[in-house]
Amino acid sequence: MAIEIKAPSFPESVADGTVATWHKKPGDAVKRDDLIVDIETDKVVLEVLAEADGVLGAIVAEEGATVLSNQLLGSIEEGGAAAAPAAAAPAAAASAPAAAPAQAAAAPAAASGDEDAIGAPAARKLAEENGINLSSVKGTGKDGRVTKEDVVAAIEAKKSAPAAAPAAKPAAAAAAPVAAVGDRTEKRVPMTRLRAKVAERLVEAQSNMAMLTTFNEVDMTEVMALRSKYKDLFEKSHNGVRLGFMSFFVKAATEALKRYPAVNASIDGTDIVYHGYADVGVAVSSDRGLVVPVLRNSEQMSLAEIEGG
Fold first, then answer.
1. N or C terminus: fewer CB in 10 A for the chain?
2. Beta-carbon neighbour count of residue 2 at 10 Å?
3. Which domains does the chain possess?
């Protein structure tokens, strides 16, 4: 008997949703209350759970499809048997040595299914971004399900745990930018429906609301001492280019962008574009008035190059 999988009933303020992620493939075995698919709306991500044990049948609405309230997404063949276990049985009967590789190959797929079942969408996304295996996280949610708070706790524990091997990984990763000197690389990531709506609302707020500027005090004692000590030598060594404070400000900005690349991004249509370079505009007073020259690839520039503009 086929049981229909339908989109949830959306509230009146939500017109439609988008199929975000299918956590099962056609032919996969499912159990009652297993997470089957995520539906993303402008306001929230909704989980659709299996209503009975069986096997996932045909998928009607693929990932990325726009669906309406209670629209058909797919079906579950109640009481059916998954194809994968049936195929594994002859392999096990054929020869004992061949059984071990088959079981080893099946393990990652099972682990993936387990993660879908035990973790909420926000928890899974956070775990993927931070390299956390959900199956190793103790869940405190309903029926032992892993929540976002559980993943945050696992991330903090991972950071505080001393380990010699992981310390070597950042060093290897740091070599990549050196090899890519001169490149202006960009990474495009399609926005989710929710993020696109947030971006739209923020643009509206910027147009309709009064914008404020925040001022923060910074202790410049060390920078001022460094400048006073080397400014004369700096000017002689770089053909009269003087060492000011702006080069320090630009350097601080570029280092901050390296540490927090999400800040060095822009929106192009429905994509978020992460820039692998830093172009910094510096306001300068001139005879023509205030102008803002842009320092291209300022992350690669020395203090003298920044000051020379």
1. N
2. 13
3. 1-81 (2.40.50.100), 189-308 (3.30.559.10)
Exposed e or buried b for every residue in 4-26, given b needs 16+ CB within 10 A? ebbbbebeeeeeebbbbbbbbee
Summarised one tens digit per residue, pLDDT across range 109-143 is: 444 445 455 666 777 777 777 778 877 887 777 66
pLDDT in tens, 71-84: 999 999 987 666 54
Q: Which residue has the tokens 């978020």?
A: 272
CA atoms within 13 A on the CB side of 207: 6
| 272 closest CA partner among 184, 194, 190 | 190
Torsion angle of the four alpha carbons 115, 187, 264, 307, in this order, in degrees rounded to the nearest 10: 140
The proportion of the chain whose per-residue pLDDT surpasses 70, expressed as a percent, equals 77
**Whole-angstrom distance, CA of residue 51 vs CA of residue 35:** 10
Which residues are CB-contacts of 204 (< 8 A; sequence separation ≥ 6)? none
